[in-house]
Design a protein that fits this description.
The complex is a heterodimer of chains A (about 350) and B (about 500). Chain A is built from 10 helices and 12 strands. Chain A has about 350 residues and is α/β, with parallel strands linked by helices. Chain B has 15 helices and 16 strands. The chains are: A alpha/beta (about 350), B alpha+beta (about 500). Chains A and B meet through helix 3, helix 4, helix 5 and helix 6 of A and helix 1, helix 12 and helix 13 of B.
Chain lengths: ~350, ~500
């Protein structure tokens, strides 16, 4: 019943670079030693659809465990999608053979969350950055060395550090190495899976700025995942908010911060600290009650209903459709109306 | 927007390639730095290296052949001196003469101008021959002393013909043979106080001017003596035809080599046996460990990386093999396929790889969830390369640690087998490891314990080696994973 075809904010007529439609990733829960019975599934990603236009950054936010990272991993096929399609440059990645997928990854790269785990500790920086180039036979010998050095300088590292090992770098530097590796194949799109979550706040800004700078210089498209709305605000053209395997709201960046339509988005925004103690004290934070419900459960209605301060009776029984309220601004909520959430809805409890 | 190339062109300054790179410190170097600080581990490493070197260079450093049996010097306590039997004269019976090189000490004594007695006791029922080669003209007489019972009949002393007996200076042919045939040997040699004395003028000279005397004895218990007169060079070599020599004395004193650790009951040098035994023990330990390394790492890595049902089946196989009583299997294999050392390698290696496979599988299982593996997949690395380039190198630290701890375990197991008498053979010769030496020592100990050194040395050698390897293994574990210190 959901509309399931949100348009992007890209200029009309331009085909989206990435089109995810009704993407689902379910992990089976099995019991038994030899003869495994499937006794249920974890619905990590449960039917999400979005477009990413060339050159834009789509921010994907949500709390831990809501399926953000699984979405990225399903797109690049580090996990196999259970259902749905992921069209990248017009090709459905979800159905490619593993060899074809390997080729497709030349244009679709990923930056990982943990800069301490995403670099092989036994390899030098040179070998780490050179690996994709060697894999696809793009450069060898002196040309390879030269390209790696260029990449290192491009991400703000000294090429003289190329023979050092990852453990000799700080977190921010390591993440830059990860960025250099992702750039090596000259991709058109990079999936950034919480690239700054593991970094110090001061370093976060540097890496985000680097990514923005690279986007401008290399014409990159990002899917930028974060659990922190503040970081996403800085870099994203549009923001999608995920809750329990679903996208609950998608909107241009400025709009989602100015006029959020989904109660969950409102709650998330109220959790962003304001760097002004007076303002911070004055404003009202919306504290969500209850735990994240189990993703193994099946829901008749809205997944957020249990914790939603604005819920109405309908929420628990019927799944809200994904409706476009203003151009490019979609939300899935029974309570929100053409003018946003009704006044005082968030106080309803 | 600029494309990639022009963006890169924008990087200013000289080409970054030309600048000398800073050398990084790999995790191996880091681990070595930590290991260096661990005194016990370094001692263990040094001892291990010394033991390994002695095993590799056993032929060079061992003073004697560990296999030559010389019963007449059997069961000598440590720091005993024995006959001047040099190793290079070891020849099996019937092939060519045993060379007895006269040691310098002996030569000096013989050259002092007084009369000395160099005696060879020949104990053999069969024919033995003593050949004395003396350089120079100083030999006065060769006395053949025959104690009591032996040449009761002089014609039993048969002197064979040969170039020995030609006097090169005069050209006169001196034929003992003829004398023997003529039955007048005692007269020709001269019997004095129960000894046959060969007058020097009867001894032939060879082309080099050396006196050569060839005498063949029949019977046992014959003694040959060289008595030297004043001045001149001593006999430089004395060779004996295949017959067991019981003793060589100079003026009643044995011409000796030092047996630092004594000898065993067969007269084999304990130190040499220890060195060669260490070679067998270490060889078995290292080889079985390498077998287990190759099988275990590959098997474990594949099981861990492939995962799922394949992993399940592979690890159940390991479980089943674990359940087999290894001693029983090894004994059966040795009975069925013979006591070849290869069987031992296979049997012990086939046992050890199980633990290695489990360890590696566990490591790979956790490693493959690491993001760098995802990153490798993302940048197009294929499965086999992920295994060899990313997973296995990261497992190697643990593997090295486990290997270092496996070697002593295998040595101990082999020793146990050898202790039970399951020694292996090579070319029909038994290969006696430390375990076998301990077993021998235990038997030799008997009730009185008078041959204590036969048990003590192999026990000490084995203990030191096992301690060293274990200390080294512990040190390596701490070095590779400093957070693990004190755990595990």
């Amino acid at each position: 019943m959901s509309d399931a075809s949100p348009t992007s904010t890209s200029p009309p007529g331009a085909a989206p670079l990435l089109r995810a439609r009704d993407l689902k990733v379910h992990f089976p829960i099995e019991r038994g030693v030899l003869f495994k019975r499937r006794i249920g599934s974890v619905r990590a990603v449960d039917g999400i659809s979005f477009d990413v236009a060339p050159g834009e950054t789509l921010g994907l936010v949500g709390e831990s465990g809501c399926g953000k990272s699984t979405t990225a991993r399903a797109i690049i096929r580090l996990v196999q999608p259970t259902a749905g399609s992921v069209e990248f440059q017009g090709v459905d990645l979800a159905t490619l053979s593993s060899d074809d997928m390997r080729e497709a990854r030349q244009d679709l790269q990923m930056i990982f969350q943990d800069p301490y785990a995403s670099l092989n500790p036994r390899m030098t920086v040179l070998n780490i950055v050179a690996e994709p180039l060697r894999n696809f036979g793009l450069a060898r010998g002196g040309a390879l060395l030269e390209r790696v050095c260029e990449l290192l300088e491009l991400v703000g590292l000294s090429a003289t550090w190329r023979n050092r090992y990852p453990h000799e770098f700080s977190g921010g530097q390591r993440q830059r190495i990860g960025v250099a590796r992702a750039l090596a194949l000259d991709p058109s799109m990079i999936l950034c899976d919480e690239p700054v979550s593991a970094l110090d706040v001061s370093v976060q800004a540097q890496v985000v700025n680097l990514l923005q700078d690279l986007q401008a210089r290399l014409c990159l498209t990002y899917l930028f995942i974060a659990h922190d709305l503040a970081v996403v605000r800085h870099i994203s053209d549009r923001v999608a908010v995920m809750y329990l395997g679903r996208i609950v709201e998608i909107a241009p960046s400025a709009e989602i911060y100015a006029a959020p339509r989904h109660p969950y988005t409102v709650a998330l925004l109220s959790a962003i600290p304001i760097p002004d103690p007076a303002l911070q004290r004055a404003r009202r934070r919306i504290a969500l009650h209850g735990e994240i419900p189990s993703p193994t459960k099946e829901y008749a209605g809205c997944r957020f209903a249990d914790r939603c301060p604005a819920r109405i009776a309908r929420c628990a029984v019927e799944d809200p459709p994904f409706v476009e309220y203003t151009p490019g601004h979609f939300a899935a909520c029974w309570v929100t109306g053409p003018d946003g959430l009704p006044e005082g809805a968030m106080d309803a409890r | 927007m600029p494309d990639t190339d022009s963006a890169i062109d924008a990087v200013a300054g000289p080409s970054p390639v030309d600048r000398a790179p800073v050398q990084g410190e790999s995790l191996w170097q880091d681990a070595w730095r930590r290991l260096e600080k661990n005194r016990m581990a370094m001692v263990g490493l040094v001892v291990t290296i010394v033991m390994s070197l002695s095993a590799v260079l056993a032929e060079v450093i061992s003073p004697f052949d560990p296999a030559v049996q010389q019963r007449w010097i059997g069961a000598l306590p440590p720091w005993s001196r024995t006959l001047s039997l040099r190793n290079e004269i070891r020849v099996t019976k019937g092939e060519r003469p045993l060379e007895l090189e006269v040691p310098q000490a002996c030569a000096d004594v013989l050259g002092d101008g007084r009369e000395h007695e160099l005696a060879f006791e020949v104990q053999e029922e069969t024919v033995s021959r003593v050949r004395v080669v003396a350089a120079g003209a100083a030999i006065e007489a060769l006395h053949l002393a025959v104690p009591g019972s032996i040449p009761t009949r002089p014609d039993e002393i048969v002197v064979r013909e040969g170039e020995f007996f030609r006097d090169a200076a005069t050209g006169a042919r001196f034929a003992f043979t003829e004398l023997a045939k003529g039955g007048s040997l005692p007269a020709a040699l001269g019997v004095r106080e129960g000894r046959y004395v060969v007058p020097l003028e009867r001894v032939g000279r060879d082309a080099g001017g050396a006196y050569r005397v060839g005498i063949t004895f029949a019977g046992d218990g014959a003694v040959a003596r060289i008595v030297r007169g004043s001045g001149g060079a001593p006999p430089d070599s004395i060779s004996l035809m295949p017959a067991e020599i019981a003793d060589v004395t100079l003026d009643g004193e044995r011409l000796t080599h030092l047996h630092i650790l004594g000898t065993d009951q067969e007269g084999r040098d304990s130190l040499s046996r220890l060195i060669f035994g260490g070679r067998i023990s270490l060889l078995v330990g290292v080889t079985a460990t390498l077998v287990s390394l190759v099988i275990g790492v590959l098997y474990g890595a594949i099981a861990g990386y492939v995962g799922g049902r394949a992993d399940n089946v592979m690890m159940r196989i390991v479980d089943i093999l674990y359940g087999m009583p290894y001693l029983f299997v090894v004994i059966l294999m040795m009975v069925a396929f013979g006591r070849s050392i290869w069987i031992l390698f296979i049997a012990l290696g086939a046992l050890q790889w199980l633990t290695m496979a489990r360890i590696v599988r566990g490591q790979v299982l956790s490693l493959r969830e690491k993001e760098f593996v995802d990153a490798a997949i993302t940048c197009g690395t294929r499965g086999a390369q992920i295994l060899t380039r990313h997973l296995i190198p990261n497992v190697l630290g643990v593997v090295v640690v486990y290997m270092t701890l496996t070697v002593p375990a295998v040595i101990l197991q082999e020793s146990f087998l050898a202790f039970l008498g399951l020694t292996v053979e090579w070319d029909g010769r038994p290969l006696e490891s430390w375990g076998a030496l301990v077993n021998y020592g235990r038997e030799a100990l008997g009730g009185g314990g008078e041959f204590w050194w036969l048990l003590l040395w192999p026990s000490i050698a084995m203990s030191i080696t096992l301690f060293s390897l274990n200390f080294l293994g512990d040190g390596l574990r701490d070095a590779f994973d400093p957070q693990q210190r004190g755990r595990m």
